[in-house]
Design goal:
379 residues; Growth Hormone, Chain: A; 2 domains; MFS_dom; 80% helix; globular; mainly alpha
């Protein structure tokens, strides 16, 4: 089982670097003559392709198996980033990052969480936490390296180096992944065992992830609006990202001891409590703690929902079921920039910031309605 987890960690460490695109996006867009909005639009396309690719992982596992699927993702990611690094036309960014790397990242993430779902129930939470934490670690590593390396080497050389690293990590993940494409993954058209649970988990994911996504979308201006100076606001953004990574690691491990439902309840409660700390005006220390806690709660939800899905539908039905549940993250992510813009335009009044807690209400109600997983699904 350690082999499955390591395969997922390597693949997600590679795929998560997609979320570091903003570190070079403005410079890359200018270099190829693309309009300024393309810097963020390319990433938006990549996220859409990511979600579609994740929905197709179920069929890919049935037809190809995890090893070949990750091998294909390695080729697509390396080629996509390579095209972006060498192309002289805006289409190189759209095709290389938006389409090829977006698809490779979605496939890598889908296969990784599917591998974690095959870990026996007593350690499934910790396994899922490690795998999804690797996805968050990728942009954290890039965030530490890029400000120092990109000015020295240029974005093209750095992108070429990233292409090599991402291809190598995905290839290593593929080598460790199982090769079989058997009934262990279930028939390609099989439906999730518990449709009601899938719907409820969709609501939990959408509502539980929304506050964190909203804060991620407008972290710097939100911190400035709470009275933090530029340096302290930068620390708040770092704490948000660090909390996200820590939440994924800790929540999965803790859920193996207390259960996913109780761990999810705690994550939603923490998210609700800490929105108040962002409503201000309060002491800078409270604001910084609220940023860290919001990231922690978001990371916990991101780790616990896939584990809870596997508990309720079983490993065979998991890829198809989680592909559907994950669309909740996409919906919340699409709404995040809109909500963030409204907060900024409204002067970041306390009553507007408190709106961030509203999605937690349906998430809490859905969690209450979620019945315990059947014993056979936790096998």
């Amino acid at each position: 089982m350690a082999r499955l987890v390591l395969s997922g960690v390597l693949a997600n460490l590679a795929g998560g670097t997609l979320f570091g695109w903003s570190l070079v996006a403005p410079e890359a867009s200018r270099d190829v003559g693309a309009p300024a909005p393309a810097a963020t639009a390319v990433f938006a396309v990549a996220i859409g392709v990511f979600a579609v690719a994740l929905l197709g992982v179920r069929l890919g596992l049935h037809v190809l198996g995890p090893r070949r699927l990750l091998g294909g993702a390695a080729v697509a990611a390396g080629a996509g980033i390579g095209v972006a690094a060498t192309g002289q036309h805006p289409s190189a960014l759209w095709c290389g990052i938006g389409l090829a790397f977006g698809a490779a990242s979605g496939v890598g993430y889908g296969v990784s969480v599917a591998l974690a779902a095959r870990v026996p129930a007593p350690r499934r939470g910790a396994a899922t936490g490690l795998v999804v934490a690797a996805f968050a670690a990728g942009p954290v590593v890039l965030g530490l390296l890029a400000p120092r390396v990109v000015p020295l080497l240029g974005w093209r050389a750095c992108a070429a180096g990233l292409a090599v690293a991402v291809t190598g990590l995905l290839a290593a993940g593929a080598a460790l992944a199982p090769a079989e494409r058997t009934s262990r993954w279930g028939p390609a058209g099989a439906e999730p065992a518990d449709r009601r649970a899938v719907v409820l988990l969709w609501v939990v994911f959408a509502g539980g992830a929304a506050p964190g996504l909203f804060v991620f979308a407008s972290a710097a201006p939100l911190a400035a609006g709470r009275g933090l100076g530029p340096a302290t606001a930068g620390a708040a953004v770092s704490l948000l990202a660090g909390g996200n990574l820590a939440g994924r690691l800790v929540a999965g491990w803790w859920s193996d001891r207390v259960g996913c439902r109780l761990a999810l309840t705690a994550a939603l409660a923490v998210a609700a409590a800490l929105v108040g700390g962002l409503a201000g005006p309060v002491a800078p220390g409270v604001v910084l703690g609220s940023f860290a806690g919001t990231g922690l709660a978001y990371g916990a939800v991101s780790a616990l929902v896939p584990a809870a899905t596997a508990d309720r539908v079983g490993a065979c039905a998991f890829p198809r079921a989680y592909g559907r549940v994950f669309t909740a993250w996409g919906c919340a992510g699409l709404a995040a920039p809109v909500v963030g813009g409204a907060l900024t335009a409204g002067g970041q009044r306390a009553d507007l910031v408190l709106v961030l807690a509203v999605p937690l209400i349906p998430a809490a109600l859905a969690l209450l309605a979620l019945t315990p997983p059947p014993p056979h699904a936790r096998a």
